[in-house]
Amino acid sequence: MIQFSQVTKRYPGGHEALSGVDLIIEKGELVFLTGHSGAGKSTLLKLVAAIERPTSGVVTVSGQNVGRLPQRALPYLRRNVGLVFQDHKLLFDRNAIENVVLPLDIAGFERRESFRRARAVLDKVGLLNREKANPISLSGGEQQRLCIARALVSRPALLLADEPTGNLDAGYAADIMTMFREFHQVGTTLVIATHDDRAIAAMGGRVLHIDHGRVGEGA
Amino acid sequence: MKAWLRHQKTALRSALLRLAGQPFATLLTAVAMGVAISLPAGLYLALDNLGRLAGNLPAQPEISLFIADDASTTQRSALAARLRQADIAQARHVDKDEALAQLSAAQDLADVTAGLPDNPLPDAWIVRPRDSSRAALIQLAGELGTLPGVAESHLDSQWAERLAAALSLGRMGVWLLAALFATALIAISGNAIRAQVLARRDEILVSRLIGATDRYTRRPFLYLGALQGLFGGLASIGVLAGAGWLLKAPVAQLAGLYGSAFHLAPLAPLEWGAVLSLPALFGWLGAWLSVSRALGQVSAH
Predict the structure, then answer these.
(1) CB B275 within 8 A of CB B229
(2) Do A72 and B213 touch (CB under 8 A)?
(3) Complex ipTM, two decimals?
(4) What fold does the segment set B63-156 form as a domain?
(5) CA of A92, closest CA in chain B: separation in Å?
(6) Neighboring chain A residues of B6 at a CB cutoff of 8 Å
(7) Does pTM top 0.80 for this prediction?
(8) Is A141 inside a domain boundary?
(9) How many domains would you assign to chain A?
(10) What is the DSSP track for B137-175?
(11) How many helices (H) and strands (E) would you count in chain A?
């Protein structure tokens, strides 16, 4: 599903976030990215979603060389990838369900069908009773679950999550990890950047450790 | 195709909601645009009406020939013979006594004319030529003017030609003004849309991360620009209708004093269409320019 060969990412200013990374993530895998902050976890996820392009090397997602995709092809790649952000990136000018509907709107779904799907996914993350609430009135955990709902509503084959439990207390974090395990069980490929060791231990799955831009297997 | 239509519908809906959500700003922009549109449109209407007024007047050009006081009888009959030739459609002799009587009757000048020691008016011929083209008229007026016994020839179509020339100058002015205000319209729309794009920066960034194409992002803003233009057009129709209503009574009064049934004509359906659709087009264009530029800026950060 995801393949990195000799991928290096250097940011303007000279900081090298990833150096010569080789890795393969198979379809349906559950992968945790660990490592101290600044090690390059976020950069790796951004390269997969083509938010950043590699300085050298090749990043392939579902057989597509995403580093070489033309700008106009990016939207179609991103529609097949669910993104969960640490800072949620919710829109506060609309209510919860309107946030979840946005990806389907973009993909051109019929509105009634969009809302039906959005309710289903809100139910799955336990927010169905808050569908009319403005995201700003939701707690941190609820906002994160809303962000996950938005990432999943278009049923992507691949879900990328950057520190999804970073700002949450242990109870909420466990809830969210349980949710991720359920998605993994129905076949979604998950790549989760986290330093929540407890969660990793509880869930099992493959662990990639990033240290100073180099990737190694195991914790 | 279905998805495309759905996208249009969503974008239109979002643009309408956006406009309804800030009625005051919408109204201000519509008024600014409406005023900008009413100026060329109003001038166009005024010229249109003037042209119609000019068209109502006798357009048949006439040449007046004034006969010298000392013209001999032979000269007079030679002139009369010349005026029976084929290039003259009609010639009417106006005796100077007859002319004086007409003058005092028409202008209520009996007191004045009665006080005159003798009749100051000349005998005259009013000639209507067969060929009314401008060159032929000038040539004929010139030729008749040099005949013996003719003191002066006068081409009566001059004022009508001057009016026609002034009207065509005015029409050119309308187009110039329209071009200027179209530019202003694009600028007003572009400015309004730019503010909207920057205000929705977060939404644009997030939408891009979850797969929005630039076309998707641009679409609601284009609708916004076109709708603003349309509202501007509506506002200008309001302005023109208001002006027409205010001018109706004074125009009727003035026309009445001249014994004319002239009244102001409103816009024709086609012109209505133009006043609504052209601003919408220019609003769209301004939005397109502005949103394309602003999207580049949003992605740069």
Answers:
(1) no
(2) yes
(3) 0.86
(4) Alpha-Beta Plaits (3.30.70)
(5) 9
(6) 108-111
(7) no
(8) yes
(9) 1
(10) HHHHHHHHHTSTTEEEEEETTHHHHHHHHHHHHHHHHHH
(11) 7, 10
